[in-house]
Write the structure tokens for this entry.
Amino acid sequence: MNIKLIKTEADYQKALKRLEKIFDAKIGTPESDEADILGLMVDEYEKKHYHIDAPDPIEAIKIRMEEMQLKQVDLADAIGGKNRVSEVLNRKRKLTVEMIRNLTKRLNLSAGLLIHDYELAGQKRA
């Protein structure tokens, strides 16, 4: 096992190629240990150099609805009626604390993700 820190894009690409070769190594083998270490290093490099912001609360809800194959009507009980769901998803009404609590349970989303601020339709941030 010859592991070196990932400091450059070239190091990163080399680590990815090696990880691809040893990814399915049998657990307990030196290659498996190397894959674990490389995976951690690649993840750390990607966090620094390829940061992806979390979606805003409404986008997160829409993504989860798609994943769970839900329609707006399926969230009526969590948000407070079909009209209210439409208003929230069309950014005409903000999520309330109660809605966030219900959606956290219904969609298995983090409350931390849902409490972030977002713009309503036609509203511009100061």
